[in-house]
Structure formats: C-alpha cells, structure tokens
C-alpha cells in the first residue's frame, strides 16, 4: 500500500550566523539563500521547497533573531518570530556550545509561548570532538522538550538527511502546494538583488554591508539575443560608504559586479549584462517608507 503524501511548512530559526542559509541550500541542493560570514545576512523570509515521493516540505528561512538597533532590525526580528505559530514544525539551529548563551536563552523563552513542535539542530559539529556533541545535546535537552535533537554539519553535508527524515516523520498527510520542479517562491528579481548584496557582504568592510540595500531597476531579455540586461542600484547610508563601495577608479564596484554576474548567469542560464549604480539614502533602515520600497514588508505564509 502506498504511503500517504505528506506536506507542511517548516521555519528555520536561530541566532545570526549559525548557518541557517547554508543548511537551507544543502537541504534544497541548490543555492537560494545568500551566504556570508557576517551576521544579519538574511533579511526576508525565503521560501524554498523540497518535493519527494514522500511529500513536500516548504522551508522558510528567516533572519537571525538578535538585539535590534533600528527599524530594519525590528522588522527582521518580527519576521523571524511571527512564523513560529504559523508553521507545522520549527527547526531551531544552534552552534555546538556546551554553555547556552544569552541569545539562545532568549530564543528558548520565546519558544515556551509556541505550541508548534520544535526540532533542535546542532550545527557545525565538524568544529568539535565527537564526545563533546553529547554534552551539547544534554545541555539543551534540559532546557526544552524538543521533538528531536539532530547534530549536523551543514558545511560538510554531514547527517543533513536526518533532518528531512525527521520532518517527514512528524508531518501529516496534505496537498502538494507547489509544482514538483519549483524550488523557491522568490522572484528572479529578488534572487538577483540578493546575489549583488552577497558579493558586497563578502568584499566590503564590516560596518558597510548592513547599511546597504539593492534595488533592481530593470531586468529584461535583449530582443533576438540570449542575454538579459540588468540595471541595479546599491543604496547606502553615507557619503563615505558610497566611496568605499565604488572604490578607487571604480575597482570595488567592478569586482562586486563581476562576481555577481557570474552567479546570475549560473542561476538564469543565460548571459547577463549587468550595470550597477550607487546612491545615498541617509538612515533608510529607520524609514518605514524606504523599507517598504526596498522590499522589506511583512508577508503571511502562503
């Protein structure tokens, strides 16, 4: 007898820089969420989809929960926390620390008000000795009643399949929400903008990337040719930041554009002609109007 088709929504939460986007990309088997070693890389909910014979899992990658210093920070926290009671399973990603810090203690307190089943994923186990993994699991087990505790290394793709298996174990029979060949609900414009922001995160100094947004002004196929013309604007907050983004003789902006273009061509499967401008919008992260304008608005799931 054929097993019933299961489906459901799973949100991935955790402090900034614990590897949520890396894990999401490994689960999907393709790069959708941007990655960097700087916190607060993910700003929006990103829905990605796994469809197998067992069923369909819709993952929602959220911004890292952190102490907010401006309206963008508040938006990011609200985006992360608001999903907890809307989904079927919460996947909480932590680093392998035996002592639970202030940030994770804060998340535990928020989870106590949530009725959704929680699976704890201890990431980066490749950074500690195997006997220490059990100590970390025991430290968290005493703080909350988790449905499962799964140690993994998203970077080394170690034990990642156990997460998918655990999720299907707890999901109920349900419909197929998305076509089986669809892996994200993100529009191409959003993915392209995020690729530019990812390269800026990698190449620019620590304080600059959090003060930038990327807007796609134009994206269209060139008639009769296998090429897409993309015009984009990097928005920053200060005159000094604009100079650093452009760089001496425009070298930094060229480097950002060149790296982003290569990933865009891989994503879109065609040649890309990319042009990038830089504009200043002072304190945009504290402007409700500009936050909405740059795509940071609260959207309900499905």
Detailed description of the structure:
The model is unreliable at 33-44 and 298-302 (pLDDT under 50). 37% of the residues are buried. The protein folds into 2 domains: 6-170, P-loop containing nucleotide triphosphate hydrolases (Rossmann fold, 3-Layer(aba) Sandwich), CATH 3.40.50; 188-293, GMP Synthetase, Chain A, domain 3, CATH 3.30.300. It contains 9 helices and 9 strands. The strands form 2 sheets. The chain has a 6-stranded mixed β-sheet with strand order 2-3-1-4-5-6, sandwiched between helices. The protein has a 3-stranded mixed β-sheet with strand order 7-8-9. The longest helix is centred in the C-terminal third of the chain and has 18 residues, at 251-268. With 302 residues, it is an alpha/beta fold. Helix content is 33%, strand content 22%. It has helices at 20-28, 71-82, 102-111, 130-141, 161-170, 188-203, 239-246, 251-268, 288-293, and strands at residues 6-13, 46-51, 55-61, 89-94, 117-122, 148-151, 213-221, 227-236, 271-280. The radius of gyration is 20 Å and the shape is globular. Strand 7 and strand 8 (227-236) form a beta hairpin.
In short:
This protein is 33% helix and 22% strand.
